[in-house]
């Protein structure tokens, strides 16, 4: 999935994985490979914990998943930081939203990294003190999704998103970018916000969502 769009300034990112530069160079893929890209949002107040001291946490996720993981610099007014996760794949496994998943094995490196990043964010938020109780209790995951994918997630007359809500037993919403809202400055012009929230949030819900998005984000 190749993305382009206007931003208020160039996108730079944190990539402190100096021990894995060779692997990063080898992960460029070929013209015949598909590119899986996920952009998950992390509250700015816990980004330090997600990166870890000297990049320890984020580097561990890179090493374990074998995916590219980058933390984008903050945008003016935004309350969240973008963490971009991607990898190249040669073949895709067809997955349908109505399938029953009896396994928890990731289908690609980027999906594995997405779960690990989400877990790191959740752990960091859970450790917040009483002064950040509102953020701690919110238990919400946000992913940036191009509008073209959002339409597929919603489905005809909302049929697909209803099945996803029923399947995951989770609140799932898609919100369009508001160009007048400075907190939305991290999103590109064509982006929507995919919000997944529920008390006692279950990581399996994100797993099922990303399985569905697997079908949407692979070049064919």
Overview of the structural elements:
With 220 residues, the chain is an alpha+beta fold. The protein contains eight helices and seven strands; from the N terminus they run βαβααββααβααββα. A seven-stranded antiparallel sheet has the order 1-3-4-2-5-7-6. It is globular, with a radius of gyration of 17 Å. It starts with 12 loop residues before the first strand and ends with a helix. Mean pLDDT is 76; it is low at 1-12 and 18-26.
* β-sheet strand percentage: 15-25%
Average pLDDT figure: 76
Give the SSE order as H and E letters: EHEHHEEHHEHHEEH
- Which structural class do the helices and strands define? alpha+beta
What is the CATH fold-level name? Answer: TATA-Binding Protein
Question: What layout of secondary structure does this protein have?
Answer:
Elements: E1 13-14, H1 21-26, E2 34-43, H2 47-51, H3 56-65, E3 68-72, E4 80-89, H4 109-126, H5 133-138, E5 140-146, H6 147-154, H7 159-168, E6 171-176, E7 191-197, H8 203-216
Antiparallel strand pairs: 1-3, 2-4, 2-5, 3-4, 5-7, 6-7
Helix pairs in contact: 3-4, 4-8
Short description:
By secondary structure, the protein is an alpha+beta fold. It has eight helices and seven strands.
């Amino acid at each position: 999935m190749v993305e382009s769009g206007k931003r208020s300034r160039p996108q730079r990112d944190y990539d402190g994985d100096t021990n894995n530069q060779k692997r990063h160079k080898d992960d460029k893929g070929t013209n015949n490979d598909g590119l899986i890209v996920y952009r998950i949002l992390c509250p700015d107040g816990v980004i330090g914990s997600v990166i870890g001291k000297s990049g320890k946490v984020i580097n561990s996720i890179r090493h374990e998943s074998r995916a590219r993981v980058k933390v984008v610099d903050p945008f003016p007014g935004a309350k969240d930081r973008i963490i971009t996760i991607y990898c190249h794949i040669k073949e895709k496994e067809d997955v349908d939203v109505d399938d029953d998943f009896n396994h928890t094995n990731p289908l690609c490196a980027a999906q594995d990294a997405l779960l690990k990043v989400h877990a790191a964010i959740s752990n960091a938020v859970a450790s917040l003190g009483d002064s950040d109780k509102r953020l701690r209790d919110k238990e919400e995951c946000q992913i940036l999704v191009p509008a073209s994918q959002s339409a597929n997630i919603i489905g005809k007359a909302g049929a697909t998103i209803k099945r996803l809500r029923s399947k995951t037993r989770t609140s799932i919403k898609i919100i369009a970018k508001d160009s007048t809202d400075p907190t939305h400055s991290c999103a590109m012009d064509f982006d929507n916000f995919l919000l997944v929230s529920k008390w006692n949030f279950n990581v399996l819900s994100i797993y099922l969502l990303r399985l569905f998005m697997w079908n949407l984000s692979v070049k064919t």
